[in-house]
Amino acid sequence: MVHSVIPAPRAAERAVATPRAHDRMRALDGLRILAALSVCLYHYAGRSSTGEFWGGSPKELFPGLSSAAAYGCLGVQLFFVISGFVICMSSWGKSLGHFFRSRVSRLYPAYWVAILLTTAACVVLPSVSEPLRLNEILVNFTMLQQPMGVDRVLGVCWTLWVEARFYLLFALFVVWKGVTYRRVVVFCCLWTVAGVLARVADNPLADEIVMRDHAPFFIGGLALYLIHRHGSDLLLWGIVGVSWALGQRYSTSALWHPDSAHVYIERSPYVILAVVTFAFGSVAAVALGGLRWANWRWLTVAGALTYPFYLVHEHLGWFAISVLHRKFHLGHWPTLAATVCGMLLLAWLIHRLVEKPLGPWMRRSMETQAARLKSS
């Protein structure tokens, strides 16, 4: 009955249903690195707690940058919209097993290395940050530390738990039976309704499963990929519009008050709205082809660095800032530039030495094992 009210894409829309040129995907890579750098600046210059690593207030060291960096945490919302778009794209025509193997081989290698590097830094310089206990570190390797109530080695990995739950929901309700236009639309509509009902129920377990505050960004990204693949229609833009409205409400209510966000300024609700609108609008521009001019090859490299950079930049960046600025008395601007560049270089090394060889090897190994089990 639900399927009967959802029109299939028209024949004219099917004509554009094949993935379009790679230049559009390079624009997505550019948005990824922009989101990662905005989160990075938030951690380095937009939070009051960062002052302990600088040995002084970032508000005084970076008076202009600090005010803008306070909004950098909204880069996470852009990440989530992009994730909805990319996951829908990459899972189209793929089996559930392929989806599982691609996510595991994509996420874990760089994540494990980031945990090892951060733990090693804590052991070497406990005055900056003390290492967790061994039992806590071992749980962190599973990426299940949050539901287990264990402290995180990487502060940013809370977003990975959000992403993992999105993957699970999408796999169970869409990928399992095969990704189609109708299944994705039904999933988006039902997830939106579930998020609203979860807020009314105010049940912690329901919130954990449905992710009422983060769901609108993923849902918006899913609908935007359908627009990219099948063309515009009123239903899809309606899903995007509702997701934008719910997403900006969550972002504003969560980030408006400075005391709970550890920032120096009272964030403007209008700026928050503008940044969330940019997150949806920029991915919409990719979906519609408005950013196909962003076809520079370096964007592909930048996109590849985004995930390892995101993992290592926070804690290892604080170590670098503490050493360069407080121990070697390097100026605050050179320290900031050196730290960002150093984390990008480290991300490139992780990508080249860990992700490129280990990710494909893991995927091939799991495929071989799956084939053996299927034939046995």
What is this structure, in a nutshell?
Helix content is 73%, strand content 0%. The chain is mainly α and 376 residues long.
Assess the beta-strand content as a share of residues: under 5%
Number of strands: 0
Q: Compute the separation of the termini in Å.
A: 40 Å
**Helical stretch tally:** 17
By secondary-structure content and strand pairing, the structural class works out as mainly alpha
Regions with pLDDT < 50 over 5+ consecutive residues? 11-24
Shape: globular
Question: Oligomeric form of this entry?
Answer: single chain
How are helices and strands ordered from N to C? HHHHHHHHHHHHHHHHH
**On the 0-100 scale, what is the average pLDDT?**
89
Radius of gyration: 21 Å
The residue fraction in helices comes out at over 70%
Biggest sheet statistics = none
Characterization of this structure:
The chain has 376 residues and is mainly α. 73% of the residues lie in helices and 0% in strands. The chain is built from 17 helices and no strands.
